[in-house]
Amino acid sequence: MRRDSLKALYDVHSWVGLFLGLALYVLLFSGSVALFVAELRPWELGVTKGNGALPVAALERVVAQEERFRAASFSIRPASYYRPWIVVETGHNHDGQRDLRHYDPFTGESVTVAAEHVVQVLERLHTDLLLPSPWGRYPTGLLGVAMLVSLLTGVFMHRKIFREMWSIRLWRSQRLRWTDLHKAVAVWGLPYHLVMAFSGTYLGLVGVTLLLNAFVAFGGDVDAASEGIAGAPHERVGEAAAMLPVTELISRAKAVLPGLEPEYLGYQHYGDRGATLMILGTLPRTLEYYPGVTLSAVDGQLLDTINWRRESWPKALYAMMTPLHYGAYGGLLLKTLYALLGLGASFLVLSGLRIWQLRVHTGRRDWRRPLFDGVCYGLPLAIAVSLLSARLLTTPVFASYEGRLLLFLLVWLIAIVVAWWRRGKAVGAELCIAAGAALLLLPFATELGGRASLLAALRDTPTSPLLVAEMVLVAIGLVTVVTGWLVRRQRAR
Questions:
Q1: 253 in a domain, yes or no?
Q2: Is it true that the peptide bond before 396 is cis, omega within 30 degrees of 0?
């Protein structure tokens, strides 16, 4: 009886460990992709030209022609290199979706822009695990806790790992190869892994921590806690007044925070004497989330400075978490380094699961091996097919978030079924080859889809967002195909 109980507990432990490891792998791998959401948005929309400077003159024309903004609150996102339109948001429509309008950054005229649903799926896979918001944030935060605990316990349990980080015995048994690679990746990427685990936990559970803060410091008043972080809202006076030009207000904001690059302009009570404008952006090489100022839209008087580094340490800690987690403070090269280290963290989970499989000697009838292969190696295939579908499948069925999400999940499920069907084969390598082949087809899909032309982009702007992103994706596809083919050939031997 005792032996049966121990076996049942061992099975439960194995199942929980497997599912937790797979969820953590999905979170880490999708995080490497989510780093480049800003670069993938213009690629999905077929943008061939990026704006190098802030076209502030068009902002005046956009605000002037929007009469419905009088005595209202709205936000404006200026055009940038990866966002070639001025985007205006006026709240939510009757369907609960954000009401967005797009304008040409040079003429200020209204334009029609397709939504970037594939990028939205890939982004939410990391931030919410595709669960309803905001509840999806909490599992990601708990997975960050699991990763943090796993890293710390692994270091204390295997202290000799630092002496063995140079030992990679590729010519020995399969279990030794996986073990040596696991230890090497764990040691060399340990600082990055710890930072990502801590910052991911902080961001994922910030909603819970805000509630705890409200009960402890504000007597249960969540609104008071929110005002303590973001500041109290400004009230409407009820008297009409003329607004200062946007260019003048941006100049005053830059005088307060030298080097500020505006990315968000939020009007409250436009046309009212109590109207305000919040200008948020980035400061070069500064580890802070959206510093900025709040000005009176009537006379430009400075009402508030949003620079949390100069305030209490909890605010400074919160302000640095988002740019630290997404590498938004150091440019494209830093994000590339983040992505490589993130893939290393994904390999850390994958190799740990593989070592466990080799230790327990799972057989062909064991359902855990095909589930492991299908989830881990099917995820890159689902991402690659989703990117390919952004070019070829533009019918109303797929030209929506729900359609793209359904396709993504369907491809992932098919990969799991294929892994179950081909148990014992080199199914992981085969799925990687299929994912790489899908990426290699992107240039042909771009030409066939008709949304953009790579040849035209190459003639006009060789450094366009579309062309650069496409060439990088093709290079990743080529490396994936070659690697999968080499692994499959080695397994055949």
A1: yes
A2: no
8-state DSSP, 223: H
Please check whether residue 238 lies inside any domain of the structure: yes
Find the DSSP H helices in 307-441.
313-326, 331-360, 368-392, 401-421, 427-440
- Look up the CATH number of the domain holding residue 247: 3.10.450
CA angle in degrees (0–180, nearest 5) for 480-447-78? 90
**Overall domain count for the chain:** 1
464-474 in b/e form (b: 16+ CB < 10 A) is bbbbbbbeebb
Q: Over the stretch 101-147, which tens digit does the pLDDT of each residue have?
A: 888 887 778 888 777 788 999 999 998 889 887 788 888 888 888 88
Report residue 12: phi and psi, to 5°. Answer: -60, -45
* Domain around 280: 233-326
Would the CA dihedral through 468, 469, 472, 473 be positive or negative?
negative
Question: How far is C-alpha 386 from the geometric centre of its chain's CA atoms?
Answer: 16
Please write down the long-range contacts of 469-474, taking CB distance under 8 Å and 24 or more positions apart: 469/36, 469/39, 469/40, 469/42, 469/43, 470/43, 470/442, 470/443, 470/446, 473/387, 473/439, 473/442, 474/439, 474/440, 474/442, 474/443
* Two structure tokens written together for 247: 């260019």
Rounded to two decimals, the pTM is 0.84
